[in-house]
Design a protein that fits this description.
By secondary structure, the protein is of the alpha/beta class. Helix content is 49%, strand content 15%. The model has no long low-confidence stretch (mean pLDDT 86).
Length: 255
């Protein structure tokens, strides 16, 4: 029996992957891009339109994933869905993580590697979505912060900034070094910091792979770890201590 199940699962993987790549290709080219382009031409600042379109596009993607991928469940508590006006810190284990977070929040910004931000067409899309370009070797991180002077107002209006502080995907439950950029931004904007933990997206799409592994039981979830509301104006405030507190929360939450 098991010899029959393997080719059946392989066939199901192919069918499901073709369906979702068709969804991304046709959905973007036929439906999204024309709306993006019209909004770009007629709106003075199309950022909000782009972010909402991204949100609904990926929200539908994950709704379809729940239907068509056998064994997949995605558990997201209301306290995660209801986050607003915050800098969200999250672990990063799969390519799926950014679009999962985009699917949760109608207004969302994130930090994108400059090497990706400068790509033709895709870079235009990222820029007009309000996403922030950053390179790990930037000589002056304040230059990056100066490009987003409106971030404080954006957060005040209910938007979220989500950041993967390790700067890359981590495997095996490992917790890497946290970069200070997101925490510096939170301090500059006097914003609360919310810690989230994603689990099992690396089983749905393995690191370095753009192929969905679909035919097995996989409970994907986002866990609310804690909210930190630092007293930024206090003389005793320490950015280093804030980063250490956040990282310790992830270390204690590892399975």
């Amino acid at each position: 029996m098991k010899y029959l199940l393997y080719p059946l699962r392989f066939f199901m993987d192919i069918v499901i992957n073709l369906f979702f790549w068709l969804y991304f290709t046709l959905g973007f080219c036929v439906f999204l891009f024309p709306v993006y382009f019209i909004g770009f031409l007629v709106m003075r600042n199309p950022e909000t339109l782009f972010q909402r379109l991204n949100h609904y596009f990926y929200r539908l993607f994950f709704s379809l994933s729940r239907i068509f991928i056998p064994g997949l469940s995605i558990t997201i508590p209301d306290e995660v869905k209801n986050i607003r006006s915050s800098v969200i810190i999250c672990n990063h284990i799969s390519y799926i993580d950014p679009i999962l977070l985009i699917s949760l929040y109608p207004l969302q910004k994130t930090i994108v590697k400059r090497s990706i931000y400068t790509r033709p067409v895709f870079g235009w899309f990222l820029k007009n979505s309000g996403y922030i370009a950053y390179a790990a070797d930037d000589s002056n991180s304040l230059a990056m912060i100066d490009l987003i002077q409106d971030l404080r107002n954006y957060l005040y209006r209910g938007g979220n900034l989500f950041v993967f502080p390790e700067g890359t995907r981590m495997t095996g439950g490992e917790i890497g070094k946290f970069h200070k950029g997101a925490f510096s931004l939170a301090r500059r904007c006097d914003a609360p910091i919310v810690l989230l933990q994603i689990t099992n997206t690396d089983r749905l799409m393995k690191p370095g792979n753009l192929w969905y592994s679909t035919c097995f039981k996989n409970p994907v979830s986002i866990r609310f770890l804690k909210v930190i509301k630092p007293e930024y104006a206090s003389d005793s405030f320490s950015l280093k201590s804030l980063i250490a507190e956040a990282r310790a929360s992830y270390l204690s939450a590892r399975p």
